[in-house]
Amino acid sequence: MVDGAVGGGEPEASDSLRTFGAVVQALREHAGLSREEFGELVGLSKHTVASVELGRRMPDPTFPERSEPVLGNTGAVRKAARHLSRQPGLAAWFRQWAQLEKTAITLWTYESRMIPGLLQTQTYAQAMAVDNVPPLDDTQIGERWTARAERQQLLRDRPNTSFCFIIEEHVFLRQTGGAEVTRALIDHALELAALRNVEIQIMPLVQQSHSGLQGPVQLLETPENKWFAYIEGQESGQLITDRKVVSVLQRRYARMRAQARSMADSVGLLQRMRGEL
After folding, report:
1. Are residues 237 and 157 in contact, defined by beta-carbon separation less than 8 angstroms?
2. Residue 22 and residue 83: Cα distance in Å, rounded?
3. The CATH number of domain 92-276 is 3.30.390
4. pTM (2 decimals)?
5. Which strands, in side-by-side order, build the sheet including 236-240?
6. Rounded to an integer, what is the distance from CA 103 to the centroid of its chain?
7. Angle at which helices 35-42 and 63-70 pack, to 10 degrees?
8. 15-81 architecture in CATH?
9. Where exactly are the structural domains of the chain?
């Protein structure tokens, strides 16, 4: 998991999901159908129906249209679906940060575990999904990539936003997914590094002085020039608003920029890595 991607479990329910699920459950019970019977009529398992009704799962876009005829054609399911607020593929703890990303004028990312979500390719993301525990189904993997691909549009749609990425060298050397996936990943990183608003720096494999040993971090600046930070662990994430803490993280990141390879050296290293694969 990285950048709020949904792991094996469902994100926590939002109010709109719970409300939608309650509407579906009430209409199903009024129709005298069990979850299993309703599932058979709309092409879902009883377990999926339960997840939707309990607000743990975002229904797919065709769910309202498939459900309406079964539940009396009242239009209630369609109307309730309009108010669903959770974006499939994004974990609950990441949604607030994702909203801030959309309008940020500065976004800094340091990653020591894997390629940041904004720089990933689909094949790389799929390779990571293979090893997810518990396993992901095809729908979850698809939602996960769709959400990430939408976020990646920020790099091109917001040319006045400054994006800076510091990535550990070993993340590329690991060759997640194999040589072919890594070649495509490096090509993608080099293409993005050529954009005027994107900076990619590689932290050397051997580095005696390193200010990022406490772990990955993201920082952003809003149009109002307010700074926020975000840190993510396994099955959790934390949005940091305390100005003193954010200031400390800003200073650490600034020192890491000096410790990492320059942009030109980083591009040269990626090109050499690409040639050796």
Report:
1. no
2. 13
3. no
4. 0.71
5. 198-203, 162-168, 106-111, 217-221, 227-233, 236-240
6. 16
7. 120
8. Orthogonal Bundle (1.10)
9. 15-81, 92-276
